[in-house]
């Protein structure tokens, strides 16, 4: 088997962002309104700071209004709920993202439920989860990571996944579960695996589409991959990189890339795969929200 095609998520995301930018320009020209995205971060987790900064940067690049709220790590839940309420009522804000995880004193479910569903561009509110659950992915805000992964899968295999077996490793509410729903909506036959699954390597070897969303560096080895499979690596793991020098780190996925690439037909790298697609989909969702608020037809991504 020859080396897999490397799926360039970074380039695909850049193309999406160009479209969002053009559509945002058209919306502003027609209505005088700009899409607005509010990103809220509680505490100083350095990894979260990096993501939040790149989300804010991308929003500006798209011509959006971009506001960032940084709250102290000790912020009481009620204060965060107040902020969400204010953002819900602010007509210049169309998307609200509260960065997860949140500190212990704050109930994340309660915060997510407080976000107006029509501004929930993360797709985490029960209303959007429910819409995805019943297969109404056109009305829902679909969570950005699975939505971005799905675009890469469609590029590789087409719109209709009939007859294909997809294995999703991971069952979180933000990645694994919605990923499985989207694959099902596209007619794939879907298996969801998790930490209690028996003989995970054998199960993975049955996958025509293998999605890894585990959070364990390079756990999925080359010989877990069915020859010719499409492999989507959602994992983002920072590991030590002594080869780069003392104290240096690098990012790796949940899949051992080099090994897996010897068997897969196509595979996403980390970095440069699903990560940039996530941010692009956040921009797309925010644009869609702004179009709906202005009573205009929203583009499809
Ligand atoms: N690229 C992107 O844009 C994004 C990347 N990520 C990355 O994706 C990964 C997953 O994120 P997230 O879903 O939030 O993580 P969670 O920790 O919420 O979920 C991890 C899932 O993996 C399962 N799991 C853990 N260990 C094993 C194992 N040994 N074998 C099989 N399954 C296992 C868990 O099973 P169980 O339920 O049984 O505990 C759980 O369902 C992380 O690396 C994260 O950084 C996340 C969001 C966005
Ligand atoms: N409410 C909420 N919504 C989220 O969508 C959300 C969240 N909380 N909490 C954390 C996770 C993680 N996440 C990533 C987004 C982009 C990259 C990304 O762009 N990664 C680059 C590399 C970035 C780097 O170099 O550090 C890449 O893979 O190429 C990664 C991870 C969104 N998340």
Structure, described:
The protein has two domains: 30-117, 3-Layer(aba) Sandwich (Rossmann fold), CATH 3.40.50.10860; 142-275, NAD(P)-binding Rossmann-like Domain (Rossmann fold). 40% of the residues lie in helices and 16% in strands. It is built from ten helices and eleven strands. Helix 1 (9-31) runs parallel beside helix 10 (274-293), helix 6 packs parallel to helix 7 (176-185) and helix 6 crosses helix 10 (274-293). It starts with a strand and ends in an 8-residue tail after the last helix. It has helices spanning 9-31, 46-61, 77-88, 108-114, 126-133, 144-157, 176-185, 200-204, 257-261, 274-293; strands at residues 5-6, 36-42, 65-71, 95-98, 165-169, 189-193, 209-212, 230-233, 237-240, 249-252, 266-267. The strands form three sheets. Strands 1-11-8-7-5-6 form a six-stranded parallel beta sheet. A three-stranded parallel beta sheet has the order 3-2-4, sandwiched between helices. Strands 9-10 form a two-stranded antiparallel sheet. It is an alpha/beta fold and 301 residues long. The site of 5,10-Methenyltetrahydrofolate has 17 residues, from helix 2, strand 4 and helix 10. NADPH dihydro-nicotinamide-adenine-dinucleotide phosphate (NDP) binds at residues 145, 169-172, 174-176, 193-197, 200, 213-216, 234-237, 274-275, 278.
